[in-house]
Amino acid sequence: MPPKSRVLPMLGAGVVGIGGYYIYKAGGKPSAAEKKFEADMHRGAAKIKSEMPRSSQTDARQEGAQYGKEIGSKIDEAVSQADKTYSSTKSQAEALAKDTKAEALKKIDQFDRTVEQKAAEAKSWFGSGNSK
């Protein structure tokens, strides 16, 4: 049994703690606490955006799109290579199975001939059933 992760309970405690803080600051009113929380989130996002230069945002988007294209082409190439390898391996396996089957049938035919030959020899040893 794998050890239990402590991350989820810690995150849950953090969420409950933050929720408790906002409810306390709002005087026990959940709707007011929610509005205060949303306002703080918007203020934080606006501050981050204002500190980030506009050109770097555009550059980051362009770089992200470029990386996405590169990763996409690498994934396509890997899938194509895997498909080729699969096809090649499948062909080799089918050829091996065909050869193995042919060899097995050849051995069975050889065994049958040997049994028939030995049966004929045994029959001649004990006579062909003509008794005087």
When the domains are counted, the total is 2
H-E order: HHH
As residue ranges, the low-confidence spans are none
Helix content: over 70%
Shape: elongated
| Distance between the first and last residues' Cα | 84 Å
- SS element count, helices: 3
Please give the number of β-strands.
0
User: What fraction strand?
Assistant: under 5%
Protein name: Calcofluor white hypersensitive protein
Organism: Neurospora tetraspora
Region (Disordered): 46-65
What tags apply to this protein structure?
mainly alpha, 2 domains, 3 helices
Question: What does this protein look like?
Answer:
It contains 3 helices and no strands. The chain has helices at residues 7-25, 30-51, 54-125. It folds into 2 domains: 11-51, no CATH class; 64-124.
Nutshell version of this structure?
This protein is mainly α and 132 residues long.
Record the SSE blueprint.
Elements: H1 7-25, H2 30-51, H3 54-125
Helix pairs in contact: 1-2
Region (Disordered): 46-65
Protein name: Calcofluor white hypersensitive protein
Organism: Neurospora tetraspora
